[in-house]
From TrEMBL:
Organism annotation: Pseudaquabacterium pictum
Sorted UniProt keywords: Isoprene biosynthesis, Magnesium, Metal-binding, Transferase
InterPro entries (alphabetical): Isoprenoid_synthase_dom_sf (IPR008949), Polyprenyl_synt (IPR000092), Polyprenyl_synt_CS (IPR033749), Prenyl_diphosphate_synthase (IPR053378)
Gene Ontology terms describing biological process: terpenoid biosynthetic process
Lineage: Bacteria, Pseudomonadati, Pseudomonadota, Betaproteobacteria, Burkholderiales
GO cellular component: cytoplasm
Protein name: (2E,6E)-farnesyl diphosphate synthase
Gene Ontology molecular-function annotations: metal ion binding; prenyltransferase activity
Protein backbone atom coordinates (compact mmCIF):
# COMPACT_ATOMS: atom_id res chain seq x y z
CA UNK A 1 0.00 0.00 0.00
CA UNK A 2 1.32 3.44 -0.87
CA UNK A 3 1.77 6.12 1.76
CA UNK A 4 -0.78 8.28 -0.06
CA UNK A 5 -3.39 5.52 0.08
CA UNK A 6 -2.72 5.04 3.80
CA UNK A 7 -3.00 8.76 4.51
CA UNK A 8 -6.28 8.85 2.59
CA UNK A 9 -7.60 5.98 4.73
CA UNK A 10 -6.49 7.77 7.90
CA UNK A 11 -8.26 10.99 6.90
CA UNK A 12 -11.46 9.15 5.99
CA UNK A 13 -11.47 7.29 9.31
CA UNK A 14 -10.72 10.45 11.27
CA UNK A 15 -13.66 12.17 9.61
CA UNK A 16 -15.97 9.28 10.53
CA UNK A 17 -14.81 9.25 14.15
CA UNK A 18 -14.98 13.03 14.49
CA UNK A 19 -18.50 13.12 13.08
CA UNK A 20 -19.59 10.35 15.45
CA UNK A 21 -18.03 12.09 18.45
CA UNK A 22 -19.75 15.32 17.50
CA UNK A 23 -23.05 13.46 17.16
CA UNK A 24 -22.85 11.53 20.44
CA UNK A 25 -21.23 14.05 22.79
CA UNK A 26 -24.15 16.28 23.77
CA UNK A 27 -23.78 20.05 23.61
CA UNK A 28 -26.93 20.52 25.68
CA UNK A 29 -25.83 18.72 28.87
CA UNK A 30 -26.82 20.86 31.91
CA UNK A 31 -25.04 23.97 33.14
CA UNK A 32 -22.38 24.06 30.44
CA UNK A 33 -21.27 20.48 31.08
CA UNK A 34 -21.73 19.53 27.42
CA UNK A 35 -19.54 22.43 26.29
CA UNK A 36 -16.74 21.32 28.59
CA UNK A 37 -17.07 17.72 27.38
CA UNK A 38 -16.94 18.74 23.73
CA UNK A 39 -14.00 21.07 24.39
CA UNK A 40 -12.11 18.16 25.95
CA UNK A 41 -12.66 15.61 23.19
CA UNK A 42 -13.46 17.30 19.86
CA UNK A 43 -11.12 18.83 17.28
CA UNK A 44 -7.80 17.57 18.55
CA UNK A 45 -5.52 14.64 19.13
CA UNK A 46 -4.08 11.93 16.92
CA UNK A 47 -7.09 9.59 17.39
CA UNK A 48 -4.65 6.68 17.35
CA UNK A 49 -6.90 4.49 19.50
CA UNK A 50 -9.93 4.82 17.20
CA UNK A 51 -7.70 4.14 14.20
CA UNK A 52 -6.45 0.95 15.86
CA UNK A 53 -10.03 -0.17 16.53
CA UNK A 54 -11.03 0.37 12.92
CA UNK A 55 -7.87 -1.22 11.48
CA UNK A 56 -8.22 -4.31 13.69
CA UNK A 57 -11.86 -4.59 12.67
CA UNK A 58 -10.82 -4.56 9.01
CA UNK A 59 -8.15 -7.18 9.69
CA UNK A 60 -10.79 -9.65 10.92
CA UNK A 61 -13.55 -8.57 8.50
CA UNK A 62 -15.59 -7.31 11.45
CA UNK A 63 -18.69 -5.15 11.88
CA UNK A 64 -17.63 -1.61 10.96
CA UNK A 65 -20.68 0.00 12.61
CA UNK A 66 -19.87 -1.71 15.90
CA UNK A 67 -16.22 -0.74 15.46
CA UNK A 68 -17.20 2.90 15.07
CA UNK A 69 -18.99 2.78 18.43
CA UNK A 70 -15.96 1.08 19.96
CA UNK A 71 -13.68 3.71 18.42
CA UNK A 72 -15.73 6.54 19.92
CA UNK A 73 -15.92 4.82 23.29
CA UNK A 74 -12.19 4.30 23.58
CA UNK A 75 -11.50 7.91 22.56
CA UNK A 76 -13.92 9.13 25.21
CA UNK A 77 -12.07 7.13 27.85
CA UNK A 78 -8.74 8.48 26.60
CA UNK A 79 -10.03 12.06 26.58
CA UNK A 80 -11.50 11.79 30.07
CA UNK A 81 -8.16 10.49 31.37
CA UNK A 82 -6.35 13.49 29.87
CA UNK A 83 -8.82 15.93 31.41
CA UNK A 84 -8.29 14.42 34.85
CA UNK A 85 -4.52 13.93 34.46
CA UNK A 86 -4.05 17.60 33.56
CA UNK A 87 -5.74 18.85 36.74
CA UNK A 88 -3.72 20.47 39.57
CA UNK A 89 -4.21 17.45 41.83
CA UNK A 90 -2.34 15.28 39.30
CA UNK A 91 -0.01 16.61 36.58
CA UNK A 92 -1.10 20.26 36.84
CA UNK A 93 -0.73 21.00 33.13
CA UNK A 94 -2.09 24.05 31.33
CA UNK A 95 -1.70 23.02 27.67
CA UNK A 96 -3.24 20.07 25.83
CA UNK A 97 -3.67 19.54 22.09
CA UNK A 98 -2.41 23.05 21.46
CA UNK A 99 -5.00 24.82 23.62
CA UNK A 100 -5.64 25.51 27.31
CA UNK A 101 -6.55 22.42 29.31
CA UNK A 102 -10.18 21.93 30.31
CA UNK A 103 -9.69 23.00 33.94
CA UNK A 104 -7.95 26.18 32.78
CA UNK A 105 -10.78 26.96 30.37
CA UNK A 106 -13.78 25.93 32.50
CA UNK A 107 -12.55 25.55 36.07
CA UNK A 108 -11.57 22.52 38.11
CA UNK A 109 -15.06 21.42 39.14
CA UNK A 110 -16.38 21.52 35.58
CA UNK A 111 -13.32 19.63 34.33
CA UNK A 112 -13.80 16.90 36.91
CA UNK A 113 -17.46 16.51 35.98
CA UNK A 114 -16.70 16.61 32.25
CA UNK A 115 -14.25 13.73 32.68
CA UNK A 116 -16.76 11.77 34.77
CA UNK A 117 -19.45 12.30 32.15
CA UNK A 118 -17.20 11.26 29.27
CA UNK A 119 -16.29 8.06 31.08
CA UNK A 120 -19.95 7.19 31.57
CA UNK A 121 -20.82 8.17 28.00
CA UNK A 122 -18.24 5.72 26.64
CA UNK A 123 -20.21 2.79 28.03
CA UNK A 124 -23.51 4.32 26.96
CA UNK A 125 -22.20 4.44 23.39
CA UNK A 126 -21.31 0.73 23.61
CA UNK A 127 -24.81 -0.22 24.78
CA UNK A 128 -27.27 1.34 22.30
CA UNK A 129 -30.99 1.21 23.04
CA UNK A 130 -33.11 -1.42 21.31
CA UNK A 131 -34.66 1.31 19.21
CA UNK A 132 -31.29 2.49 17.90
CA UNK A 133 -30.70 1.88 14.21
CA UNK A 134 -27.19 0.55 14.98
CA UNK A 135 -27.93 -2.16 17.52
CA UNK A 136 -25.30 -4.70 18.56
CA UNK A 137 -25.74 -8.23 19.89
CA UNK A 138 -25.77 -8.23 23.71
CA UNK A 139 -22.77 -10.56 23.82
CA UNK A 140 -20.71 -8.13 21.75
CA UNK A 141 -21.80 -5.20 23.92
CA UNK A 142 -20.70 -7.11 27.02
CA UNK A 143 -17.37 -8.06 25.48
CA UNK A 144 -16.56 -4.51 24.40
CA UNK A 145 -17.56 -3.09 27.78
CA UNK A 146 -15.42 -5.69 29.56
CA UNK A 147 -12.33 -4.95 27.46
CA UNK A 148 -12.69 -1.21 27.92
CA UNK A 149 -13.42 -1.33 31.66
CA UNK A 150 -10.46 -3.57 32.40
CA UNK A 151 -8.11 -1.37 30.38
CA UNK A 152 -9.33 1.81 32.08
CA UNK A 153 -9.53 0.61 35.69
CA UNK A 154 -7.23 -0.42 38.50
CA UNK A 155 -5.50 -3.12 36.45
CA UNK A 156 -4.88 -0.70 33.59
CA UNK A 157 -4.86 3.04 33.11
CA UNK A 158 -5.97 4.18 36.58
CA UNK A 159 -3.56 1.78 38.24
CA UNK A 160 -0.72 3.01 36.06
CA UNK A 161 -1.49 6.62 36.92
CA UNK A 162 -1.47 5.73 40.62
CA UNK A 163 2.01 4.20 40.24
CA UNK A 164 3.12 7.25 38.26
CA UNK A 165 2.05 9.67 41.00
CA UNK A 166 3.57 7.49 43.71
CA UNK A 167 6.91 7.33 41.85
CA UNK A 168 7.65 11.06 41.64
CA UNK A 169 11.18 11.74 42.86
CA UNK A 170 11.92 8.05 43.43
CA UNK A 171 14.27 5.73 41.55
CA UNK A 172 12.43 3.18 39.45
CA UNK A 173 13.90 0.03 37.94
CA UNK A 174 13.28 -0.69 34.26
CA UNK A 175 10.88 -3.57 34.94
CA UNK A 176 8.81 -1.40 37.29
CA UNK A 177 8.80 1.44 34.75
CA UNK A 178 7.63 -0.98 32.06
CA UNK A 179 4.84 -2.26 34.30
CA UNK A 180 3.68 1.28 35.02
CA UNK A 181 3.54 2.24 31.36
CA UNK A 182 1.91 -1.01 30.26
CA UNK A 183 -0.90 -0.10 32.61
CA UNK A 184 -1.06 3.67 32.18
CA UNK A 185 -0.71 3.85 28.38
CA UNK A 186 -0.34 0.39 26.93
CA UNK A 187 -3.50 -1.21 28.29
CA UNK A 188 -5.87 1.15 26.47
CA UNK A 189 -3.95 0.89 23.19
CA UNK A 190 -3.97 -2.90 23.43
CA UNK A 191 -7.68 -2.84 24.27
CA UNK A 192 -8.32 -0.71 21.18
CA UNK A 193 -6.89 -3.47 19.01
CA UNK A 194 -8.79 -6.21 20.84
CA UNK A 195 -12.07 -4.27 20.69
CA UNK A 196 -11.72 -4.00 16.94
CA UNK A 197 -10.96 -7.72 16.76
CA UNK A 198 -14.03 -8.50 18.89
CA UNK A 199 -16.33 -7.13 16.18
CA UNK A 200 -15.45 -9.99 13.83
CA UNK A 201 -14.42 -13.61 13.66
CA UNK A 202 -11.00 -14.07 15.22
CA UNK A 203 -9.39 -17.48 15.78
CA UNK A 204 -7.07 -18.05 18.78
CA UNK A 205 -3.91 -17.62 16.70
CA UNK A 206 -5.04 -14.29 15.26
CA UNK A 207 -6.31 -13.11 18.66
CA UNK A 208 -2.97 -13.88 20.33
CA UNK A 209 -1.10 -12.12 17.53
CA UNK A 210 -3.28 -9.01 17.80
CA UNK A 211 -2.93 -9.00 21.58
CA UNK A 212 0.87 -9.19 21.32
CA UNK A 213 0.86 -6.50 18.63
CA UNK A 214 -1.22 -4.21 20.83
CA UNK A 215 0.97 -4.79 23.87
CA UNK A 216 4.21 -4.04 21.99
CA UNK A 217 2.72 -1.02 20.24
CA UNK A 218 1.28 0.36 23.48
CA UNK A 219 4.67 0.28 25.17
CA UNK A 220 6.42 1.67 22.08
CA UNK A 221 4.02 4.61 22.09
CA UNK A 222 5.02 5.53 25.64
CA UNK A 223 8.75 5.13 24.99
CA UNK A 224 8.44 7.49 22.01
CA UNK A 225 6.38 9.87 24.15
CA UNK A 226 9.19 9.98 26.72
CA UNK A 227 11.72 10.67 23.95
CA UNK A 228 9.63 13.45 22.43
CA UNK A 229 9.15 15.06 25.85
CA UNK A 230 12.87 15.91 25.90
CA UNK A 231 13.55 16.42 22.18
CA UNK A 232 10.59 18.47 20.92
CA UNK A 233 9.14 21.87 21.73
CA UNK A 234 5.77 22.57 23.33
CA UNK A 235 4.60 24.08 20.03
CA UNK A 236 5.38 20.83 18.19
CA UNK A 237 3.90 18.58 20.87
CA UNK A 238 0.77 20.65 21.55
CA UNK A 239 1.44 20.13 25.26
CA UNK A 240 4.07 21.24 27.75
CA UNK A 241 7.46 19.85 26.78
CA UNK A 242 9.88 18.68 29.46
CA UNK A 243 7.17 18.45 32.10
CA UNK A 244 8.11 14.93 33.24
CA UNK A 245 11.72 15.98 33.78
CA UNK A 246 10.60 19.12 35.61
CA UNK A 247 8.31 17.05 37.83
CA UNK A 248 11.13 14.59 38.57
CA UNK A 249 9.15 11.68 37.14
CA UNK A 250 10.89 8.48 36.02
CA UNK A 251 10.76 7.98 32.25
CA UNK A 252 12.47 5.74 29.74
CA UNK A 253 14.92 8.55 29.03
CA UNK A 254 15.82 9.19 32.67
CA UNK A 255 16.06 5.48 33.49
CA UNK A 256 17.78 4.18 30.33
CA UNK A 257 19.19 7.26 28.60
CA UNK A 258 18.10 8.75 25.29
CA UNK A 259 20.01 6.37 22.99
CA UNK A 260 18.80 3.23 24.76
CA UNK A 261 15.23 4.57 24.83
CA UNK A 262 15.40 4.99 21.06
CA UNK A 263 16.72 1.44 20.76
CA UNK A 264 13.83 0.18 22.90
CA UNK A 265 11.29 1.95 20.70
CA UNK A 266 12.70 0.31 17.57
CA UNK A 267 12.81 -3.12 19.23
CA UNK A 268 9.18 -2.83 20.33
CA UNK A 269 8.24 -1.71 16.82
CA UNK A 270 9.78 -4.89 15.44
CA UNK A 271 7.97 -6.99 18.06
CA UNK A 272 4.66 -5.49 16.96
CA UNK A 273 5.34 -6.21 13.29
CA UNK A 274 6.50 -9.75 14.02
CA UNK A 275 3.31 -10.40 15.97
CA UNK A 276 1.23 -9.29 12.98
CA UNK A 277 3.19 -11.53 10.62
CA UNK A 278 2.30 -14.67 12.58
CA UNK A 279 -1.40 -13.85 12.91
CA UNK A 280 -2.51 -15.13 9.53
CA UNK A 281 -4.71 -12.07 9.09
CA UNK A 282 -6.18 -11.35 5.69
CA UNK A 283 -5.59 -7.59 5.77
CA UNK A 284 -3.22 -6.25 8.42
CA UNK A 285 -1.58 -3.56 6.30
CA UNK A 286 -3.24 -0.65 8.09
CA UNK A 287 -2.15 -2.06 11.45
CA UNK A 288 1.41 -2.35 10.16
CA UNK A 289 1.43 1.23 8.92
CA UNK A 290 -0.06 2.49 12.18
CA UNK A 291 2.85 0.86 14.01
CA UNK A 292 5.24 2.73 11.71
CA UNK A 293 3.37 5.95 12.41
CA UNK A 294 3.61 5.52 16.17
CA UNK A 295 7.38 5.10 16.15
CA UNK A 296 8.16 7.67 13.43
CA UNK A 297 5.96 10.48 14.82
CA UNK A 298 7.25 13.86 15.96
CA UNK A 299 4.39 14.87 18.26
Amino acid sequence: MSQIAFETWVQQELQRVEAALSRWVPADAPAGLGLAMRYGVLDGGKRLRPLLVRAACEAVAGDLAAALRAAVAVELIHAYSLVHDDMPCMDNDVLRRGKPTVHVQYGEAAAMLAGDAMQALAFEVLTPDDGDAETMPPALQARLCSLLARAAGHAGMAGGQAIDLASIGKPLAEDALRDMHRRKTGALLQASVLMGAATGGCNPTAHAALSDYGAALGLAFQVVDDILDVTQSSATLGKSAGKDLDANKPTYVTVLGLDEARHQAQALHQQALQALSRGGLADAEHLRLLADMVVDRHS
